[in-house]
Amino acid sequence: SKTPGRTQLINLFEVANGKRLVDLPGYGYAAVQKKIKNQWQHALNDYLNKRECLKGLVVLMDIRHPLKESDQQMISWAVAVDIPIFLLLTKADKLATSAAKAQLNKVREAVLPFMGDIQVENFSSLKKTGIDKLRAKLDDWFSGVVTAKV
């Protein structure tokens, strides 16, 4: 959707026997009232703290505006509870290839101090960039395989 904050409930998607993807309401910018955003943050916090079967987090960030304060808070939380993170820099097609690569390297460098299991990749649904890496990561999490970070 072109409107930030379109996801307003926790949505579960069954992808295989007992394996689900969960789409959570946005914790960053959303075109909604502050009261609603606060409700989302409370629900997000509850969900993340109570889901023992959580295998990892895929965090979507606009490549042009990565690592906002809310992104850094999410990363800090996930690292603190030892949850692997797959950061996708979305809209990579909006930048020239060299600029997208430079931004990817900049974000990879910026997350090093977090000292967690964090993988960062460029992503474009338009050009299909990063889809194979996302699928591979989800397959690893669903199968319980631990892979080296790239």
Secondary-structure element string? EEHEHEHEH
- List the domain count as a whole number: 2
Classified in CATH, the superfamily of the largest domain is P-loop containing nucleotide triphosphate hydrolases
CATH architecture assignment name of the largest domain = 3-Layer(aba) Sandwich
Class per helix and strand makeup = alpha/beta
Strand order of the largest sheet: 3-4-5
Distance between the termini: 30 Å
Q: What's the rounded overall pLDDT mean?
A: 84
Contiguous uncertain segments of 5+ residues: none
State the CATH class of the largest domain. Alpha Beta
How much of the sequence lies in strands comes to 15-25%
Helix content: 25-40%
By CATH, the topology of the largest domain is: Rossmann fold
Main sheet properties: 3 strands, parallel
**Total beta-strand segments:** 5
Gross morphology = globular
Counting H and I runs of at least 4 residues, what is the number of helices?
4
Q: What gyration radius follows from the Cα positions, in whole Å?
A: 15 Å
Fill in the keyword field for this structure.
150 residues, alpha/beta, Rossmann fold, 2 domains, two-stranded antiparallel ribbon, 5 strands, 19% strand, globular
What is this structure's SSE topology?
Blueprint: E1 11-16, E2 19-23, H1 34-50, E3 57-62, H2 69-80, E4 85-90, H3 97-111, E5 118-122, H4 131-143
Parallel strand pairs: 3-4, 4-5
Antiparallel strand pairs: 1-2
